[in-house]
Amino acid sequence: MFTVSKGDLAKLLLSSKPINFKHPNLVTHNCLVNIDDQVSFLGTDLDWGIFVSLPCKCEGQERFLIEPRIFTEFARTLEGEVEVSHKDNKVTLRSESSTAIFDTQPANDYPEFPVPTGEPVVLSRDALQDIVQKGSAYTERGGRPLWDACLWEVEDGTLSVVSTNQFALSRAQVPMDTVDTSVIIPARPLKEISRLIEEEVSIYFDETFVHFVSGPVRAFVKLLGGNYYKYKQIIPAEFKCEAVVSSEELRKAASRALIVKTEFHNFMKLVIDKQVTVAVDSSKGNLKVILDSEVEGEPIVLYVQPRYVVTALTQVTQEQVVLKISGQHTPMIIQPLYEPTTTFVVMPMSPDN
Predict the structure, then answer these.
(1) Which residues constitute the domain of residue 332?
(2) Do 63 and 135 have their domain in common?
(3) Does 176 map to a domain?
(4) CB 303 within 8 A of CB 349
(5) Of the candidates 89, 8, 7, 13, which has an alpha carbon nearest to the alpha carbon of residue 51?
(6) What residues are paired with 155 via a beta bridge?
(7) How far apart are CA 223 and CA 211, in angstroms?
(8) Burial of 208 per CB tally in 10 Å (0-12, 13-18, 19+)
(9) Is 79 exposed, middle or buried, given 0-12, 13-18 or 19+ CB atoms closer than 10 A?
(10) Using one digit for the tens of pLDDT, what is the confidence trace for 141-185?
(11) Is 146 helix (H, G, I), strand (E, B) or coil?
(12) What contacts 119, CB < 8 A, 6 or more positions away?
């Protein structure tokens, strides 16, 4: 038996996020509850898992499985402290005037949670959340496996988190003092884990998993095999034109272009001369937006898909970005003006395509 606050019980139940409810007959459809000198909840689909443990008033030792959905829904309705007891494959929840009893299952066949080994690297919560959010900007579910994954590459003391769907690319970087390494991590669990982290996080890499340990939360993600795209080849190193524009005004212009574009005319025209002009001419209508800009270099006309521009600018918190272009048929770089560690790359389109 153990007693926790409603808020702490909600934290414990966050461990159910990895569970795949499409396969209700599997043991991993359930959440493992372990009661010892503290209480721990664990959920996994074998590809990733979350382990949450909290100190609380515990009596005895118990280990059993619960169906987390109904448990979570009922726990949300409770107030104050919640007493949880287990007996004869039944778990009882008591809180003030409410009592509920749910079936449980034995935990004998529940898989072991992988344990991190070796020396960790440490990041602040803000640094982890920032590189995951920006570095995974162009992940897409339902496409190719690598489209829904991020490359984590440590090289020369810098961690780069990269995502691409081959139409656009994002890269976020942060200093990391560890040996060079390169792993591919599925994006969805990475995003979920970064949201749960409330403290400084220790990150462990091994041949099969990446582990995250932060306060009461411990998580693992199974790495993807194979090789990532040779992304560095598509990031231009030299530019013929650079333009500094308002992040918000360019985002608004690209958002309007999304409305005017059509299925067969799904690009916007960027004219960079003494200023930046965004234009669309489709069967829906015409759009022309002139942006205040600081332009250096040659005049260039470029065609890009507006949704990838919007995606990039949604991640930017600085007031201005710099557009870097080396030609009409080469990728366009979008960078926050004073943040060279964040790079977005948008592939060009042909107006005849």
Answers:
(1) 236-346
(2) no
(3) yes
(4) yes
(5) 13
(6) 158
(7) 10
(8) exposed
(9) exposed
(10) 877 889 999 999 999 999 999 999 989 999 999 999 888 999 999
(11) helix
(12) 178, 204
